[in-house]
Specification:
This protein is mainly beta. The protein is built from 1 helix and 20 strands. The protein has 2 domains: 5-145 and 263-283, no CATH class; 196-253, no CATH class. The strands form 3 sheets. The chain has a 10-stranded antiparallel β-sheet, with no helix packed on it. It has a 6-stranded antiparallel β-sheet with strand order 15-16-17-18-19-20. A 4-stranded antiparallel β-sheet has the order 11-12-13-14, with no helix packed on it. The longest helix is centred in the C-terminal third of the chain and has 4 residues, at 247-250.
């Protein structure tokens, strides 16, 4: 028998309330987000803090739970693969399947609940799905359950995740694939030798890549393009696939971003999804069943 679950969303499409079960035994989780959309705290229905999250440049640094701080260790796209306590002991560790499902997981029982998955995704055991801000993602199929609110701005499929390249792109908002923090420039961009990453905490882009000829490259996340400087004062811009762009093309706002899923004047909106009332053919992942 599948448990009933209800979710509440705000006007930005963020999941701010989650109730699993019914009656006195129902478990309520209320989420708080910062201005960039990162979940920074979870509370129960009495207001007591369940856990808190610390972020840097869109990546989770640590989880605070039960009075303890656990440092998170990521892979190349910012997905947590390990959590350690203040002594360095492992409290949680996992390996993943290609499209984000858990392959193997090790948990120090009762110590830490770690539900972060792909950047921007949160595992929900009652459905087996990953909540991904604007949409819900199925790690078994590697697809979203809902169509992209922006339409065909991220390839030919409105249900596909991150251009079907989850080890290269991320989609923290559930809208369109992005270059993950620190990802190398595409091979199509002319360069000499290998790109070398140089992190810089004072650089809003996190750092730059340089090749052996002195050419530098950095990802302009707001603009969605690569800036490549030849070291002589000349700059060329490229899209995320490595195709050259003019200055005007690089700074032109994508047409799809004008199509917001919610009107700007919309008051706070609450949506309830009682899963127990969904039709039997609703496409849940089998991993979400609770006997």
């Amino acid at each position: 028998m599948r448990e009933q679950a209800e979710y509440v969303y705000n006007a930005l499409g963020q999941q701010v309330g989650r109730t699993v079960g019914s009656g006195p035994s129902a478990v309520v989780t209320l989420s708080v987000h910062d201005l960039t959309g990162n979940r920074i705290a979870e509370h129960d229905d009495t207001g007591a803090v369940i856990r808190e999250y610390i972020w840097l440049d869109g990546r989770p640094l640590a989880v605070i739970e039960g009075g303890q701080t656990y440092q998170l260790h990521w892979d190349q796209i910012g997905r947590p693969v390990m959590a350690t306590d203040s002594t360095g002991a492992v409290a949680w560790a996992a390996s993943y399947l290609p499209f984000g499902g858990i392959d193997l997981v090790w948990v120090d029982t009762g110590v830490l609940t770690q539900n972060l998955r792909f950047p921007g995704q949160w595992f929900q055991a009652e459905t087996g799905l990953h909540q991904n801000w604007m949409r819900d993602y199925g790690p078994t199929t590697g697809r979203y359950l809902q169509a992209d609110p922006l339409g065909l701005v991220d390839g030919p499929s409105v249900y596909g995740y991150a251009k079907q390249s989850p080890v290269r792109y991320t989609d923290p908002r559930g809208l369109t694939g992005e270059i993950p923090f620190g990802a190398s420039p595409p091979s199509k961009i002319p360069h000499t030798g290998e790109w070398k990453w140089s992190p810089d905490p004072n650089n809003s882009r996190g750092g730059t890549f340089t090749d052996s000829s002195g050419k530098s490259a950095s990802w302009d996340k707001p603009g969605g393009h690569w800036d490549v400087d030849d070291g002589k004062g000349n700059r060329q811009r490229y899209d995320r696939e490595g195709n050259p762009l003019t200055k005007e093309e690089a700074h032109r706002k994508p047409r799809g971003l004008k199509r917001l899923p919610f009107p700007r004047f919309c008051p706070p909106l609450f949506l309830y999804l009682p899963f127990a009332q969904m039709p039997p053919d609703f496409p849940f992942d089998r991993g979400g069943e609770i006997d």
